[in-house]
Amino acid sequence: MHDHDHSELDHHTHDIADDADRRYLTLALVLLLAYMALEVTVGILVSSLALLTDAGHMLTDAGAIALALVAMRLARRPASGHFTYGFKRAEILSAQANGLTLLLLAIVFGIEAVRRLVYPPVVDGAWVTVVALAGIVVNLLAVWIMGKANRRSLNVEGSFQHILTDLYAFIATAVAGAVIWLTGWYRADALAALVVAVLMFRAGYGLVRASGRIFLEAAPSDLHPDAIDAAMLAMPHVTRIDDLHVWEVTSGMPALSAHVIVSLDVDCHDVRRDIEVMLKDRFDIRHTTLQTDHGETGDSAAGIRCAFGHEHHH
After folding, report:
1. What is the pairing mode between strands 308-312 and 287-294?
2. What is the mean pLDDT of residues 148-175?
3. Tally of CB atoms within 10 A around 101
4. Which is the CATH superfamily of the domain at 10-215?
């Protein structure tokens, strides 16, 4: 009964955190969309690729947050039918879409920036500087809002990285605008756009790699299967570990399954429970599926196979 109450409390707290995350993300989305519209208008009027590149990045920011909000809603759906994990991986799909969008835009803007380095158009440096400085303020506010959300979620972290990259981009654009304003060196605009493209590529690559690890069922980067295997083998009465698998269902939700061979003279259920507690305490793995057997598999003295042990905490 106590375990049930604790689980209910965890679930309730999780819902409150999700609601707060959605509020933060929605607020940041409205802020970015409003400023992006202004930036596109000014960018076109003053022929600044740096401003248009920033606006393009802001569009991916807005898209990232919108996708994150949709994915969060999907991820809350309970498991049913063929979707035994529910839609928790929707968040990872969202993160991968964000990453791929960033990579694509980085290439497009990078090519255009190189072209403008060769043939620089006339750019109004004063307008670029003013709009970029205002953009820094808007992005700082968005970063502060997003920083309050749960960044353990790769989905939320993806959106946060978008906005943080955009902040650096605005700083580069403001510097370029000031250089053009003071010296008339128009190539500074294309250079700033190139810096933004590189930042976008870096952020996009990081997101695609992190989401790809989850889709490929790799162990979380902070959990080492060899260390987990050693820790399980070190438990009293455990003689062998077979078929150890560690993966992530979605960011922040590691899972583990294994076949555990235990001594003949002990209750395998007690050993299984001890291992589950150790995995939760030492590695924060709360979703475990352990099959326990006595002695070596195939032994005539192995006796009756122990039942599956399954513990699933939200």
Report:
1. antiparallel
2. 78
3. 20
4. Cation efflux protein transmembrane domain (1.20.1510.10)
